[in-house]
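Exercise: predict the fold of this chain.
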Amino acid sequence: MPLLEFKQGSAICGEGEPLRRLLFVIKGSAEASLGGRPFRFENGDMIGLCGLGADSHCLTYTALSDTTVFAYPYAGLGDLEALLRDNADVAYLLVNSMCRQISAFLKYRAVLKREADGAYRSVMEIYPQYERLCALYALTPKKLPGLSAIAPFSEPDPLEDWAHDYYTEIRALEPAVHRAFFYGKPGISSGFLRKSAEDILDTLQGCRLYQEYLGGIAKVILSGGGHDLFSLISELHFDSLGIKGADAAVETLMMQLTGLSHITGIDAAGFHARLHSYKDELMIKRASQEITNVPAAAGGGGVKQNLSDSLDIILSYSGCPEETCNKFIRLVQEYTGLPERGGSDTAARRVRKELTAMFYTIYQQVFLKSLADRAPSTVIKMFLNFGYVDAALAGPENADFLYSIADSVKGDPEQGFYTLREWLTAIHEGKKEPSRNEFDLDYPAYLHEMKTSGKIDAKEETRLLADLGEKLRFEIENVVPIVNKITFGQISIFCPLFADHNVHRKPEGSLVTPALLKKAFDEIRAVDFSAYFREKPYSNLKCGVPNEFVHVEVLPEIILMPNAGVRGAMWQEIDGRKRTTPARMFMSLFLEGDLKNLLIRLTGEFRWEMCKRVQGMRWNDVTNPSLTSEYCDYLQFYRNNRDFPIEVKDAIREELVRAKNNFKTVFISNYSEWLLYEANGSLRLNKNVRRLLTTYCPFSAAIREKLMQNPLFAEVLNRYNFKTQQRIQYLSNVMQKINRTTSESPPELLDEIEYAAR
């Protein structure tokens, strides 16, 4: 039975580590952390009891002071029972320590339950009060991210309520009674420890469920991004100071919110720092505010008072010359007053053209300034993410909605979804490279062309290649304007300013969010599982694999453009020259059409362009079979195909006429029908197209199995399944050969077998 010593602050054991010994504290103290909540273990406590039912440590233990422990070897509950029989003193210590630990965790669980119930009720009371006060003071309430996801705690608690009373009362027994019941009774002690081992795991699981739930509420109250319930009430307080009675009403609401600063999941230090900053700013504003008894009224034309001077805020923030600002104001006023803003007359075209040119100049200035601004105003975010400049132009209702979501609208860069502001920030920070321009030149190729034409020398080219500011300028000047116009969909009447005449669906119904994008992509990949997989070489000489090809999935990056449009753009299939980099697609932030249908078309275009990239110069050479080469051969020579009846040839000819003889356009149309109809057994395509798409864009295994019942699919699917089984058999043989010489199983090959079986 070895004696172990741990210095203050050192790790004793970590969560998830195998339980190989029980540690009895004889000197010093230790601490266990449960989601940041500390629990102390003093002299007489046994470390490791929490993990008896899992055979691994369920908590992380750290020495609070120099700590000495006895280590009892542990290999399972069988060993524990032998210890209980052979040593009555240790048995009693185990039971006693287990009683203390489970009682402490049960008490903490009860605290978390009270916090969860109270926090839910408070948030559900505070936000409606905030909305009511906004309406009362003619201010636009902002949407609160995460609020809609909050519901009363409904996860099933793993431990029944009676267990709390059971263990609490055992813990409360007089020491003599407790000792008389357990001491020298290995059967009772063993049963108690076995039951407790299960219940303590359930108790910890219950605590973690409550912690997770409270963490979600805490993010709504106080988030790292700064747009939270605290900021909403703070802004309401500042904006309403001049309104009679508002100061006291909002201060009461803030006091109610402050009462939640102690709940689990809240960063108490961060909360009090924000509170201190809020009080300082409030004191300054009160000192400079001339309080009147006149109630605030909404601005003219139905525009709320916090949006009536949007254009002035944006132009003042931009720092552009006064002459530029005045001209832009005049053009916005002229555009707003046009009887037909999308008209084709000379005046309307001139205004749109001049506004477009000035918009991007101002956009660049505002964006650059926002990079150094930790908290740009809501109106500035509306300008950068939506193209919003004026409430009257956008329409009062649209403007109010944009204001309510401006602080919460975000992409999800980890999944590859970006707002335009987030995308430009990523380029400025060097995390992403600029996109290709409209001539299909990436940034290095663009600089090389400038050097070749004599506009810059080699030294300047080298400098510009590393200049993040120039990369940002390239994206804003060469990519953003053309992509914004394409995604809008009506190029001839395009103007980048958010205007109500371009909005045909309510913005709240057309807003594209990361959740909607992920859902649509998941649905597409559930049908066409290989859509975004790329083939890459793999070698592992250690395992005897000199050269093999495996597939990796690389999902595209989606950049949401600041407009209400109908189109998307599959802008580039890879980044640079590396084939395992993500494709880059653009679409409208407010999409007027169907998101899934649009992504299906973009996926089809990606498949075509990626095949061309892989095949290179031989992309349409049928002697080198590929998706593009076989499709081109099919469409080019369909008239001479004797297997096609007259009506099929007529249908193909009509397809080509509609597509203006563009083979890629025909393929994308066929691909859309393949995913939307043929996958469900609804036949829309001829047998030649069905063969090509089964070969190069196969359905997932579940869909293939269902379609095998259809004779029109059976032959081509049997051929595909045969090739798939050959591939799986080959890879299995490779793995068997590897396993005969080494115990290592390369995950790349295991993933490839899984891919082949999909």
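Check your answer against the key: Residues 88-136 form the longest helix (49 residues).
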